[in-house]
Amino acid sequence: MTATVKAEKKKGGFGSKFTRFWHNITSNPSVTVKETLGYSAGLLGNSAAQDVEAFALTLFLTRFMGIGAAYVLILELVAKIANVIADPIAGLILDRKTKNGRSMAKIFSLITPFPLAVSSILLFVVPKIGFTQRVIYVFVFYLIYIFCDSFYDMSIQTIAARMTSNPKDRKNFYTVAQFAETLGGMLPSGFIPIFVAAYAEKEQFIYLAFAIVFGIIGFFFMIVPAFTLRDKTEFKYIRKTEKKVQLSFKALALNRPMWMLILATLFDSLRQVTYTGLAYFYLETLDAFWMASLVGTVSSYLSYAGILLVPIICRKWSARDVIMGGYAYTGVFYLILLLCGRYILDARPFWLITLCIGLAGLPNGAMSSCRKILLADSSDYMEYKTWKKYGEPVRSEAMIFATNSTANRVKTLFKSSLFPIGLLIIGYVSAYSFGNSTIQVIQSENVLRGIFYLITICGIAGNFIPAAFMLLDNFHGKKKEALMSELEEMRLARLKEYEMKKKLDFESPKKFGTSNKEVKSSKGK
Questions:
Q1: First CA to last CA distance, the chain
Q2: What is the C-alpha separation between 468 and 316, in angstroms, rounded?
Q3: Spatial distance between the Cα atoms of 391 and 405, rounded to a whole number of angstroms
Q4: Closest Cα to residue 393, out of 242, 241, 257?
Q5: Which residues contact 341 (CB under 8 A, 6 or more apart)?
Q6: How far apart are CA 409 and CA 270, in angstroms?
Q7: Angle of the 131-161 helix axis to the 33-63 helix axis, nearest 10
Q8: Do 374 and 168 form a contact (C-beta atoms < 8 A)?
Q9: Which of 264, 258, 256, 263 shows the shortest CA–CA distance to 466?
Q10: Distance of CA 305 to CAs 190, 317, 428, 462, Å?
Q11: Residue 328 CB neighbours (<10 A)
Q12: Per-residue pLDDT of the chain (525 residues; tens, 9 = 90+)
């Protein structure tokens, strides 16, 4: 390599690197711009429709539907159970193909957006019926929404994982998609509070209007992947077997990268306790709730920057390294907060708190993008391991994403349980209710300090423990390169065998002077 070329490489700053990133997308031999934008559109539409429900549904049900908190709690519990049931069912169905060879994932990506959009809108319509019928109405449409959302999400994730078998091409594809998904999840929750604050007397109508607008927009965006994506990686060398379901479960058991990510995800629930507790920290301990908007804005912008850095970082680091490094990086900032605990609680330096918590959000978007990349890559690892152990390659992208989705549901359940337990441990006292009035409680100094230690200790444990589990994932670096090289050789050998057998099957009837059609008709008789 000449000195001139080396100098040109060194000159390249962030702008030139970003230009190369966009060039890689537009000239990607595995995935076209149309396919990348199509997948991104589906995620954006689904994320926007979900965000309206996640942000406003509980509030709408209790304030305008007349459904009490106890019923809402039961609804959420039923929904979580339904999700846990729906995910593996979706995984088993979406891995299959119809008799004429059409992908079930492609079919469900087209048929689920309509009932998903309609049910998301109807949940914000107050029907003029009795209370019991109204509760049934909400339960029915919420379950339709949950099942359709599970099947849609799983179907486009499955198709996306089959877009390319080249791990290097996945990073650009998933980076753009993660950017769109994050944007979709911010739009409704960003605009609804502004409109409610400006037109408080029309609050009920505002929720319905946003549900309609993002339901319709979401529908048209969600159907885009069905017309732009296709299963490019048809693994013809994988033989059909009657024991495919049993082999799929055995293959999942061998998928070490997936299980390390799932264990990290479950302990990530401690990190989520921190995020929930930050509102209490700003409001109660610091008496500065305005910090929630400031820190949230800083964290969001940095998270976007982190997403854009994925293609650059992943040139040297694997998806596993980004996730592990992201957890460790965030944990360090909460460790700094804990070490400065006495100074923070006495002097309340807002600049230090904003700096630490804001900067801690930098890797969040990149980690989300790399989780999808890691799960897609793990299908190659699973194929290799089953081929070596059982003599037959097994790929089950839908089951991988279904298993991961189930782990995320369990994580949410853990978080919902752990945070109230944390409040009980520190002695937090809730407001007292007397009829229609509520009396706020002034928390003791020990409780206010306890809130700080709750968010910092959970922030440290919820980041360093998942980082340790990701360290146990050995599918990276030179080992990954060697495995993928051997797997490619095995694929080519089996593919040659498949093509040879196909050629012999075609030519054998000719030797006996019989056409293929005659052979088939004789078999039918």
A1: 69
A2: 20
A3: 29
A4: 241
A5: 452, 453, 456
A6: 14
A7: 160
A8: no
A9: 264
A10: 19, 17, 37, 23
A11: 17
A12: 444 444 444 445 555 655 665 555 555 667 778 888 888 899 999 998 888 887 788 778 877 888 876 787 788 778 778 877 878 888 878 877 777 777 888 889 999 999 999 999 999 998 888 888 888 999 999 999 988 988 898 888 888 877 776 666 777 777 778 888 888 877 887 788 778 878 878 888 888 999 999 999 999 999 999 888 876 655 555 555 545 667 778 888 999 999 999 999 999 999 988 988 888 888 888 888 778 778 878 887 888 888 877 777 877 888 899 999 999 999 999 999 999 999 999 998 999 999 999 999 999 888 988 898 899 889 889 989 998 888 888 888 888 888 888 888 888 878 877 888 888 898 887 666 555 455 667 888 998 999 999 999 999 999 999 999 999 998 888 898 899 899 888 888 887 877 777 777 666 655 545 554 444 444 444
The secondary structure of 469-502 as a DSSP string is HHHT---SHHHHHHHHHHHHHHHHHHHHHHHHHH
Helix (H, G, I), strand (E, B) or coil at 434: strand
Tell me the three state secondary structure of residue 439.
strand
Encode burial over 217-241: b for 16+ CB neighbours within 10 A, e otherwise. bbbebbbbbbebbebeeeeebbeee
